[in-house]
Amino acid sequence: MTQLRTWSVKEAIAHLDEPFSMINVDVVGDIAVSVYRCEGQLDWHEHRTNDELFWVVDGIMRMETEQGEAYLRPNEVTVVPKAVAHRSGSEVEAYVILLRSVISANRRNGRHHIFVTEPEAGVPTVDLKERADEIDEPFTFRSVGLVEDSVLQVAWGEGTWPVDVPAPCDIFFYVLEGGGTIEASGHMVRLDPGEAVVVPRGSLYRLSTERDTRLVRVGWEDVMGGAT
How far, in Å, CA of 211 to CA of 195, rounded? Predict the structure, then answer.
């Protein structure tokens, strides 16, 4: 029987009682999903083999890189490419979802990108809610960033979503706004803002959402599609 793996940002944050403490909440394909508490200032460092996607869910985080700096607010994301020196910080605590590869050698593509609507200057960022609101049609996922071989996408819609079954890869769904349900093998899960579920590869599932719902999903780029 398919087991839907669920978690919430609120519950993850409750475990973070020290600056820069982190909890690993799931793995989607070969991408680890973690939540960490950004408070104070990390030292400059780099990751030689892995990209990192930073997604602020609460507070304001400062991201400094050798390419420039940016302040990220809730539901804004940026990707720091492998081998780029960087450090994150916050004068008041912020909470961040971190996506990074759990495989360090011989990546198939090793690409990293944030799709921005204006020329890049410094550290490129994307507001997930704003990008979802730019989409004309419901149930249409738009890609907003790449981490290695996985893509982060946004969409909006009300009702039952058209989905590929069986799921072509592990798929991570996260509710930005609104709410809904996801069902697999007779097991139904309710999702509210700040809550997530991972649908395992090969699952038969159904996704339904309420009015004004905006979703994020993450999965392998080569099977997820989605316009940029």
Answer: 17
DSSP 169: S
Q: Give the residue from 123, 125, 124 showing the smallest Cα distance to 77.
A: 125
User: Could you tell me the residue ranges of all domains in the chain?
Assistant: 5-105, 130-221
Short-list 148, 159, 62, 161, CA closest to 105: 148
All residues at 6 or more sequence positions from 94 whose CB lies less than 8 Å from its CB, including other chains: 37, 38, 39, 56, 58, 59, 60, 61
C-alpha to C-alpha distances, 194 to 8, 57, 75, nearest whole angstrom: 6, 8, 10
- CA triple 164-128-50, angle to 5 deg: 80
pLDDT tens digits, 166-190: 999 999 999 999 999 999 988 899 9
CATH of domain 5-105: 2.60.120.10
Instruction: Report the chain's terminal Cα–Cα distance, integer Å.
Output: 35
The amino acid sitting at 22 is: M
Residues of the chain with pLDDT under 70: 1-2, 103-121, 227-228
CATH class of domain segment(s) 130-221: mainly beta
Token couple for 125? 């960022």
